[in-house]
Amino acid sequence: MGKIKAIFFDIDGTLVSFKTHRIPQSTLDAVAALRSRGIKVYIATGRPVPFIDNLGELEYDGMITVTGAHCFTRGGEIIFHRPVSTGSVERVVEHLTHGTDAYPVIFVCSDEMFITELNEDVDAVARLLDIKMPTVRPASYARGKDVLQLISFFKADREPHFMTELMPDCTSMRWHPFFTDVIAGGVDKSVGIDKVLAYEGLSLDEAMAFGDGGNDVTMLSHVPYGIAMGNACDELKRVSAYVTDSVDEDGVEKALRHFGLID
């Protein structure tokens, strides 16, 4: 294999266990060892910044957040930023305000976020991810704001309809049956990786990525060394260069040792 100079890590189910909501010590040690060797470490997550509160003492060089729509360095320098179009935001606001089949939406804005309503699905996701849901506000509060993501709580069978009618210029990145992350069209984690690599002056053949969910497919199929966790979905395993053990079985550390990136 070529020399790896940058590694991108998903959070949920990759760095952080769904069982403990923590990063295994083996992973913390492995990532520290990578950085001590000069390898850049970037987080690549569907989570927006306000929901990233579970990394503990992990050291990293920057983040790809909102499934690629907002990327920045550890020091806060913006590498890439692409919000949802005002047209899509307005169509969703109108539907949630006047439609007959409204659904909960978390509007993730550049400076704040809010949710339009709570229900059992929202509560279940909050428990799964160990997060506190934001303040409930009417959908109209999103007007005029820089909206990066619409975390939309509709099931997969309704997704084609809502995406076509309300958000035709957006991309849906579903990794859970209860909701999907909707971002600007033409953006995903692979786009974020390309932006970060260009910023760092690195090439794609110097990149590796770890993931476990459906929103990691583009990322792991894009880099030459895509590593799927043992707990990953089957679709992701099929496009990966290598499948390691689960997050709870020290999968990150084992894969990095397999490729000779740590001792």
Write the layout of secondary structure elements.
Layout: E1 6-9, H1 25-36, E2 40-44, E3 62-65, E4 70-73, E5 78-81, H2 86-98, E6 105-109, E7 113-115, H3 120-129, E8 147-152, H4 159-166, E9 170-176, E10 179-184, H5 189-200, E11 207-211, H6 217-222, E12 225-228, H7 234-239, E13 242-243, H8 251-258
Parallel strand pairs: 1-2, 1-11, 2-3, 11-12, 12-13
Antiparallel strand pairs: 3-4, 4-5, 6-7, 6-8, 8-10, 9-10
Helix pairs in contact: 1-8
What tags apply to this protein structure?
Hypothetical Protein, Haloacid Dehalogenase-like Hydrolase, Chain: A, domain 2, five-stranded antiparallel beta sheet, Cof, Rossmann fold, HAD-SF_hydro_IIB, 2 domains, magnesium ion binding, 8 helices, hydrolase, alpha/beta, eight-stranded mixed beta sheet, Cof-like hydrolase
Explain what this protein looks like in three dimensions:
This protein has helices at 25-36, 86-98, 120-129, 159-166, 189-200, 217-222, 234-239, 251-258, and strands at residues 6-9, 40-44, 62-65, 70-73, 78-81, 105-109, 113-115, 147-152, 170-176, 179-184, 207-211, 225-228, 242-243. Strand 6 and strand 7 (113-115) form a beta hairpin. Strands 5-4-3-2-1-11-12-13 form an eight-stranded mixed beta sheet. With 263 residues, the chain is of the alpha/beta class. 29% of the residues lie in helices and 22% in strands. The radius of gyration is 18 Å and the shape is globular. The chain is built from eight helices and 13 strands. It folds into two domains: 6-81 and 187-258, HAD superfamily/HAD-like (Rossmann fold, 3-Layer(aba) Sandwich), CATH 3.40.50; 86-184, Hypothetical Protein, Haloacid Dehalogenase-like Hydrolase, Chain: A, domain 2 (2-Layer Sandwich), CATH 3.30.1240.10. The mean pLDDT is 95. The two termini are 16 Å apart. InterPro entries: Cof, HAD-like_sf, HAD-SF_hydro_IIB, HAD_sf. Pfam families: Hydrolase_3. This is Cof-like hydrolase. One of its GO terms (molecular function) is phosphatase activity. Keywords: Hydrolase.
